[in-house]
Design a protein that fits this description.
Elements lengths: L2 H4 L21 H25 L21 H15 L4 E5 L2 H10 L5 E6 L11 E3 L16 E6 L6 H14 E10 L3 H8 L2 E2 L14 E5 L11
Parallel strand pairs: 1-2, 1-4, 2-3, 4-5
Antiparallel strand pairs: 5-7, 6-7
Helix pairs in contact: 3-4, 5-6
EC number: 2.1.1.-
Subcellular location: Cytoplasm
Protein name: Protein-lysine N-methyltransferase ORF140848
């Protein structure tokens, strides 16, 4: 430690232009990161404002990593949506559990005779009105009894890669589903997915807007020609 700090008689002031506790300068990288953050927040607020007026086509909140949100890329959302719509049929019912990007694409493609619900913890998705149903995987059966075995197909993407999260989500999925299930989760969950939902991996692998380190797979409890022809 230098003598300047040890000697109480030394009252040398910081030189002009030097950093001090009262004059902290951000690096160019930090400034750029802050500018990007505030820009994203401004864009999201504008989209929220538009959604409040009924303009939902461009509504897509920023990912909230604290909620373990990682949005699908456009290709994945489209493939999952088309599969769900094909399975449900012209007058079918589809549930999207913790899978709002799949819900959004289904909403864009569906006919007026198809019912789709978004089961989601993030209340920003209340913008979708009656399609939104608040859902917390920690309370998997806190749902209206009218929804029991109501859906021709359930698309589920548990928010966390843990045995507890998948187990609780599976309880919800089995409550909602008549039969067909599409599950997107990590490859490390393969054994548990088969045990809980009789769901096996397809050739199609979901991908996300932001690259994730964990390998993700798509599982179904039925034979899907389309999902097994996608690479």
């Amino acid at each position: 430690m230098s003598g300047i700090l040890d000697d109480p008689s030394n009252t040398t002031e910081p030189e002009p232009g030097s950093d001090s506790d009262d004059d902290i300068k951000l690096s160019a990288t930090a400034i750029a990161a802050l500018q990007e953050f505030y820009t994203e927040q401004g864009i999201e607020q504008e989209l929220l404002n538009q959604a409040y007026t009924g303009k939902l086509d461009s509504f897509q909140p920023q990912e909230d990593w604290q909620l373990s949100q990682f949005w699908y890329d456009a290709r994945t959302a489209d493939i999952l949506a088309r599969e769900a719509l094909a399975v449900a049929g012209d007058n079918g019912c589809i549930a999207c559990v913790s899978s709002p990007t799949a819900y959004k694409r289904i909403r864009e493609l569906r006919s007026n005779t198809v019912e789709v619900k978004c089961f989601e913890y993030d209340q920003r998705f209340q913008m979708y009105g009656q399609d939104f149903i608040f859902y917390d995987f920690n309370d998997p059966l806190n749902l209206d009894m009218s929804l029991k075995n109501h859906f021709d197909v359930v698309v589920a993407d548990p928010p966390f890669l843990s045995e507890e999260c998948l187990t609780k989500t599976a309880i919800t999925v089995k409550f909602l589903a008549k039969d067909k299930i599409i599950l997107c989760t990590g490859a490390v969950m393969e054994t548990l997915a088969a045990k809980l939902l009789l769901a096996l991996p397809c050739q199609f692998k979901p991908t996300h807007q932001k690259r994730l380190e964990n390998e993700f797979l798509c599982y179904t409890n039925y034979e899907s020609k389309d999902l097994n022809s996608q690479h």
